[in-house]
Each structure stands twice: as structure tokens, then as C-alpha cells.
Amino acid sequence: MDLVCVAVQQKLLPVSLRLLSSRRHYARLAEVGRLETPKAEGKYDTGQLILHRVFGYRGVVLFPWLARVYDRDLPQHREGDEETNAGVGKEVRGRTHTFYQVLIDQRDCPYIRAQTEAVTFLGNQDSSRSLYAIPGLDYVAHEDIFPYVSAEKAPLHHELFDKFLGPNPNRGALPLIPVNKPDSRLLVVDFLDPPFVAQDTLKAWQNKNHPWLELSDVHKETTENIRVTVIPFYMGCKESHASSVYWWRYCIRLENLGSLSVQLRERHWRIFSLSGTLETVRGRGVVGQEPALTKTLPAFQYSSHVSLQAPSGHMWGTFRMEREDGYTFDCRIPPFSLESKAEGGPATPPETA
């Protein structure tokens, strides 16, 4: 069920939160703020409150990333372009695009169809834990952001919010836009600055963990109206006396762009390592689920991990999908590279940053 909705009434745009009752199964709308004008150009600043266009959660921007997007659905070659074939996915023309590191409001986490512990790190070499996660951290594309002004005293609930961000003492508003008559209600409030600014803790944590947080490549492809987006991240290398094991996480979003419901039934992966091995992985669903992509809930997002005994490799594959009319098809997962980076220091948990 959609968690956040926008009610349009007399050209006034209140942002409303749908509160759920498990006993009576009804929804009640409560205003939580007002929309700002989305930015067609430029970037959103640290501290900007947002609504996610697809998943509907409330969040706040921590900092931006510039990524190369390889979209196989777009025309790839224009007059004067040079064709390249270096690396998986690189025969597709990459375009620079802005994404944002975002904190998710913990009140919304139970209702969204995206893993809220998807950003993971390798533990230290001497740690008994191989992985740990930062709850409520996400990557959001610029076009998936609806900026808004909160009407709540505590606009975002997350344990890292007060550690990373503080009130902006220099915030100033642009003139309000009147609607038709001078004495009528005002339409939209746009502010010159975001309501919050980065604290030193956030800056230090970003600098320390930049290699493990950095988003660099995004891959997209659509099959039978099912759009698959893949974002790989290098996590680091675990050394032992016998070998070195390189780790990556990858985030996958599936979105149904059609009118018929579709359910994911199986996954089929091919994983090639620079060491010369080719592995095939088959299984039911993903992360223990067989998500349905419907008209009301068209998207699903999850993360997983892969390790290789080589510093680079490639992944590609398909999802077996079943449509509501019984038609089954293989939805392509765009091929993507697994590339390692120069080792930095160990990842730092935010609570100790």
C-alpha cells in the first residue's frame, strides 16, 4: 500500500501521510508538509527533505553522487559518436546522472517495497562479523525526488539524523506565489536553502567511507515492460593465508511499466571471474520472495552480495516472470562489471564516526 500520497485541492498541494489501522483496515490522511518545486536543473543540497517518487517514503538528502548510467533502452549512437566495446555494458553509451545518498524515515520502513538494510560493509580483518548494515540508507535518482517542507517538529525519524544534520540558521524563503487574487491563499513555498546542514560528523564519515559508499555505474534494461536497474558497489577484500576474496554488493530495482500484473518466479545468474571461472546460479525468487509487480505496487528493490577470488569479473542473467494472463518470459538483467578499487581504511560504523 502506498504510504505517502499527494492530494491536489484548489491548486494547493498538501503532502499527506496515509496512516494504517490493522483493526479496521482503513486509511486516514494527515498533512505532513507542503511540496516544493522539483528541480529540473541543478542538484538538491544536503539537508533537503524529500518524498520518493516510486516507494513513497520520506527521507533527507545526505550528499550527491555523479554516476554513469548505461541505459540499453536509449538510442546509443549519434552522428559523430565513437563505438566502444571495452568491458561489459560499455558498448552502451554512458550518460552522467545525479543520485543522492538518502536517510529513510524509520516510520515508513515497514510499508515500502525496498530493503531498508541494503547498504552493507565488510567487517574489519580481525572482526568476527563478515558484514554489517546501516539501516535506512538508500540511493535515489534525481528524477525520483519530490522535495517538500515538513509541518512536523521532528520531520524525520532516524537514529543518525541528529548526528549527521543540524538546523540551518541561514534559511530564507523566496517570495510566495499568489493564486489569481491578491487576497487568495498562497500556492507553493520555495526556499533558498534546505532546512538542515551537514554536521562535521557527516563530513568525516563520508570522507572515511567514500570508497565503500561511492556509486559510479548504473545499468538499465527493459524487457516486456519490466525495467531492471542494477547498481554494483565494491566492498573490499578479505585476506587470508591461502587466498584473497573480493566482495561486491549489488542493488536491483524491478519496475512494471505496463498495465498487467507480473510476478517474479525464478532467477538465473551467470558470474564470470577474471580467474577464469564461470558460475551459474539458479533459484526460486529473490531474497526469499517472489514479488508481484502490480498497478498499485509496481516496483520492488533488493540487494545481494557476490564474492570472487579475483579482483574483477562480470555478471549478467535473467528473471523468469509470470504475467497475470499466464504468459511467462525471461526478463534480461543488464550485464555489469565487478571492478575492485585501491584499498582504503576499514569502514566506520556511523555511530562511532
Automatic annotation (TrEMBL):
<protein>
    <recommendedName>
        <fullName>ApaG domain-containing protein</fullName>
    </recommendedName>
</protein>
<dbReference type="InterPro" id="IPR007474">
    <property type="entry name" value="ApaG_domain"/>
</dbReference>
<dbReference type="Pfam" id="PF08755">
    <property type="entry name" value="YccV-like"/>
</dbReference>
<dbReference type="GO" id="GO:0005634">
    <property type="term" value="C:nucleus"/>
</dbReference>
<dbReference type="GO" id="GO:0042645">
    <property type="term" value="C:mitochondrial nucleoid"/>
</dbReference>
<dbReference type="GO" id="GO:0070987">
    <property type="term" value="P:error-free translesion synthesis"/>
</dbReference>
<dbReference type="InterPro" id="IPR011722">
    <property type="entry name" value="Hemimethylated_DNA-bd_dom"/>
</dbReference>
<dbReference type="Pfam" id="PF04379">
    <property type="entry name" value="DUF525"/>
</dbReference>
<feature type="domain" description="ApaG">
    <location>
        <begin position="220"/>
        <end position="345"/>
    </location>
</feature>
<dbReference type="GO" id="GO:0003677">
    <property type="term" value="F:DNA binding"/>
</dbReference>
<dbReference type="InterPro" id="IPR036623">
    <property type="entry name" value="Hemimethylated_DNA-bd_sf"/>
</dbReference>
<dbReference type="InterPro" id="IPR036767">
    <property type="entry name" value="ApaG_sf"/>
</dbReference>
